[in-house]
Amino acid sequence: MADLQAAKATADDLIAARAGELSDWCAQIFDFAEPAWREYRSADWYVERLRAEGFEVEPGSAGMPTAFCANWSNGDGPRVGLYAEYDAVPGNCQAPLPLAAPRPGLGPAAAGHTDPHSALGIGALAGLLATKAAMQAHDIPGTLQFTGEPAEKVRGSKPIHAAAGYYDGLAAMLSFHPFYMLPLCNTVRWDTHCGAAYSFVYRFRCTAPERWGAQDGAPIPQSHSDIRAPGANDALMMMYQAGRSLRDSMLPHRGGWSVSEAILATGQATADNLPALQADLQYMIRVPDLQMAEQISGQLHRLARQVAEMTGCTVETIWVSKSRPGLANHAVARLAWEALQEVGPPVWEAPAHELARKVQAACGQPADEAPLIEACTRLIDPEEAEAILRRDLPPAQRNSTSDDYTDMSWHCPTARIYIARPALRGGPYPPWAMNALAGMPALIDPMVQVAGRVLARSALRILTDAPARAAAWEEFEERRAAAEDVPPLADYPPPIHLPWPEYVETRRGRDWHIPSPPSGDAR
């Protein structure tokens, strides 16, 4: 244990010594702010950085252009996994300022970091580099694996990486996420892990509008009558409305579940006398278990076929995600909780508090002497957090909400670690306020550094404590067997060719694919 303590001290020293770099890196990914499946600059940045740090990196892992898998080995030993996410959310472009303002040169419709995945990835990278430094300094054998996980907001990469075997053979996976939603703040998930998520796009096509109606002998070209065909937009609107009106009938009123829609742009910028040829409607289903996911998706698939028939269209289902619900692992969760207790919660200094008060004032709220919620500044025991979480859940509901880290938990013992991101007292606050806090170094850097220290301690414990590894693996096998060992569900290619929004280079410079409003327009 003395050697482990020395290794932890080395890891802490590395994070302290490179605090300035970590801050700059976090700000850089925050500024890239690239959305799902289009994180080109962010992924390239990580690949270049990891190679510079001595890792062997496979870019484009599992056929995903903005994913990667990096490995570094210090000889034969256990293999520990960490990962970065770096996708941002369209419609949340915010500068790291205490006022509502998009990043320079862009409008508010562009993407921005909300959770923030910019800090998630750099916090995990801090833990990775600190663990590597300690392994080298104290001759600790083993391998570190670091995957780049794009498109988490649509539950994208992890089911695909899982199906391709990237998590097989890991002694443990350490999953970190910034968080502020009570009671999961500065703690580790215990029993109730995230649930299943299914996501897919219905692509309606009007391929034969000329067959819709009979010709009446009028001396106009036949194509000018095609506009009488319903077209793909009509199919999309019928599907959207019918799906919403029937949503409450798709499942019994039990447990927490949701169905969300998004209309993907298809570039048909015309209202000429032609029917819309294509329309894409995306669904995201968040449910506790796979049976519920299958039931809802089956209802929607049936409805989509009927809508296509009524409108004379065809419909194609393009899968985005099939993510399994998570498996708990008390052994590795307890190990991570011990690390978190050693490090303690993030600590924010006076400059951070002053910035937070400026955000409060900009939102028309009173400026508090202590502007951050109290839960950000203390730890909560995982079992206490579990008891609070279960108060609002039916006893039979095993999982709650969704996040695709759960796919990792079917391949190795997995700990889900939450470190507090700064959140404001009072409110209500507009979305820009939380997004701005995530980009200000004085407010986000304390979380990044604490995350790095907790992850490094957890990884070092796994690498050096054979009985702890054995206990985690024994529990993993027991839980997987009890859950009937659901295999990977991703039987579809990465959905990279859908019209996901992205940044483009034009004669006007770098811009969001939805044109930005002129400078000075109101949000």
Report on this model:
By secondary structure, this protein is an alpha+beta fold. It has 13 helices and 13 strands. 37% of the residues lie in helices and 16% in strands. The strands form three sheets. The protein has a seven-stranded mixed sheet with strand order 1-2-4-3-5-11-6. It has a four-stranded antiparallel sheet with strand order 8-9-7-10. Helix 4 (117-137) crosses helix 12 (441-464). Mean pLDDT is 93; it is low at 519-523.
Write the layout of secondary structure elements.
Elements: H1 2-17, H2 19-32, H3 40-52, E1 56-59, E2 68-73, E3 79-84, H4 117-137, E4 143-148, H5 157-163, E5 172-179, E6 187-188, E7 196-205, H6 231-246, E8 258-264, E9 278-287, H7 290-311, E10 314-323, H8 330-343, H9 350-362, H10 382-390, E11 414-420, H11 431-437, H12 441-464, H13 466-482, E12 503-506, E13 509-512
Parallel strand pairs: 3-4, 3-5, 5-11
Antiparallel strand pairs: 1-2, 2-4, 6-11, 7-9, 7-10, 8-9, 12-13
Helix pairs in contact: 1-4, 1-12, 2-4, 2-12, 4-12, 6-7, 8-12, 8-13
